[in-house]
Design brief:
This protein is α/β, with parallel strands linked by helices. Helix content is about 40%, strand content about 20%. Helix 1 links the parallel strand 1 and strand 2.
């Protein structure tokens, strides 16, 4: 049987949680889809909780300016979805209320508007880290 070359893999699938439809989330969506990623956009973390196939995703991007999160919420999400890497995006450069989450649970925090080179650099790092982790004995 021949493999389907059009099949979208876990490494190409991203969740975006943005509390509002805005230029930032649309920009990320367009960038990701332009590079062949499948994106699922959700308006809240409750929508994430209601998804059954979260293990099929490589990355969760949270817009921390439009979604209410705190250190405990991010820690609980990371425990529940430990196979998914987390990125956050924000227009603010400093989040003292998310210091623990940014230090320990987010792979990176990107500034708005999201720079495409930076976004794809972090995606490359995440994919390489995942590949290296899978090859460990």
């Amino acid at each position: 049987m021949q493999a389907d070359s059009n099949r979208i893999t876990r490494e190409q699938t991203v969740l975006i949680v943005s509390g509002q439809s805005n230029a930032d989330s649309r920009g990320i969506l367009n960038l990701m889809q332009g590079k062949g990623y499948r994106c699922v956009v959700m308006a809240s973390l409750n929508d994430l909780e209601n998804r059954s196939e979260t293990a099929d995703y490589l990355l969760l991007i949270i817009d921390v300016d439009s979604v209410t999160v705190n250190n405990r919420v991010v820690r609980d999400l990371k425990l529940k979805y430990h196979d998914i890497e987390f990125l956050c995006i924000s227009g603010q450069s400093f989040h003292p209320d998310l210091q623990d989450a940014i230090s320990n649970h987010f792979y990176a925090c990107l500034s708005k508007p999201v720079d495409s080179e930076e976004l794809f650099y972090w995606l490359k790092c995440i994919r390489e880290n995942e590949t290296a982790t899978r090859s460990l004995p």
